[in-house]
Design brief:
32% of the residues lie in helices and 12% in strands. With 342 residues, it is an alpha/beta fold. It folds into two domains: 284 residues, Ribonuclease H-like superfamily/Ribonuclease H (Nucleotidyltransferase, domain 5); 39 residues, no CATH class. A six-stranded mixed β-sheet has the order 4-3-2-1-5-6. The radius of gyration is 21 Å and the shape is globular. The chain binds zinc ion (2 copies).
Length: 342
């Protein structure tokens, strides 16, 4: 089945994704690849903590050969909180088990060396980037702290996701896909995002486990105010500022940082004078050294030009006709008509 045809783009495909959902529940899953099914069976019944520890490179004696090539993908996505409730951005941070395993013997303070093995991507969709949440869950995607933001078309985003989930074993084209562990915070929403972007279900047939920081927190005794810990409370637990949260690149990074602290609490027991906050501050700078070759670097959600971002937009712009008509005179100066969310 192909979803490249524009008429099928963004069309949900409920039944194959229901199959994927069953992976999250660690129940029956039917994947076409026998060896991938073996890896899935290996993770089935293991705790989320144990699965992530394996993904980080800790060995387990009875692991099937293919499991050693596992890739971990940490994801977060944001949607506009009002109609049209469209997907606006996602963070995708990823690492291979093999590369991470090389750093495991010397994780550094609070796992700094491990956090530096992760590739940090923040993707905003050109079509919808101007739909910024300001009401219930305000986030500012102009303030991404991890990696460098790229703006893409829906098709480029879909291609990027497809590629991210299809790493060839040992980087040899045609050698088959690496198994993928998907990690998120309230991860079900992120699985929905893949569906919404029209990513073909066959692309993610190699997802062998879906794990969640909320589940890890519960078993590791890290509690927030409610039943399911929020990402902000998780960061507070580790004395890390939840700086510019509710934007996808930052939330995915906080998910990774929090998950790492929880599942390696024994190994990372504080033996340093540097705080985790200092490690995170340095990680922000470090991650900006990587410039992914996807989409474009600039898109102004105020004037629509592609040579600067909104924070650098000071010129006069045509006032938004929709806002003027609605008597929102001040708002009318903040964007052109084409970029109105009204
Ligand atoms: Zn501008
Ligand atoms: Zn407007």
């Amino acid at each position: 089945m192909s979803s490249t045809n524009s008429s099928t783009f963004r069309t949900p495909s409920p039944s194959p994704y229901d199959e994927l959902d069953s992976v999250g529940n660690l129940s029956i899953a039917q994947a076409p690849e026998t060896s991938m099914e073996e890896v899935r069976g290996f993770f089935r019944g293991m705790s989320n903590t144990a699965i992530l520890r394996y993904g980080l490179g800790f060995d387990l004696p009875d692991a099937p050969a293919l499991a050693k090539d596992t890739v971990v993908i940490v994801m977060d996505c944001e949607k506009f909180e009002h109609e049209p409730r469209c997907l606006t951005e996602f963070g995708l941070h990823t690492f291979t088990r093999k590369e991470m395993a090389t750093a495991l013997s010397n994780p550094g303070p609070h796992g700094e060396n491990l956090l530096r093995q992760v590739w940090y991507y923040h993707i905003r969709l050109l079509e919808t980037a101007h739909y910024v949440n300001r009401t219930f869950c305000p986030g500012n995607p102009e303030k991404n702290h991890f990696g460098n933001t790229r703006f893409t078309t829906d098709q480029q985003a879909k291609d990027f996701l497809t590629e991210s989930f299809s790493w060839p074993i040992n980087n040899v084209p045609g050698a088959g896909k690496c198994p993928v562990i998907l990690l998120g915070h309230a991860v079900d929403n992120d699985v929905d995002m893949l569906r919404e972007l029209g990513v073909d279900p066959s692309v993610i047939s190699n997802v062998v486990a879906i794990i969640d920081t909320q589940k890890i927190a519960r078993t590791q005794g890290v509690h927030g105010r409610g039943d399911k810990i929020g990402l902000q409370a998780l960061m507070e637990h580790y004395d890390v500022d939840f700086r510019d949260g509710h934007t996808a690149g930052n939330d995915a990074a906080y998910t990774m940082i929090g998950a790492l602290q929880m599942v390696m609490k024994t190994e990372l027991r504080d033996n340093t004078t540097r705080s985790l906050q200092e490690i995170v501050n340095d990680l922000e700078v470090f991650s900006k050294g990587f410039h992914p070759d996807i989409g474009i670097a600039n898109h102004c959600t105020r004037c629509g030009r592609k040579d600067h971002n909104r924070t650098e937009c000071y010129g006069r712009i045509e006032r938004c006709k929709k806002c003027l008509k609605a008597n929102k005179t001040a708002a009318a100066y903040t964007h052109i008509t084409k970029l109105c969310t009204r």
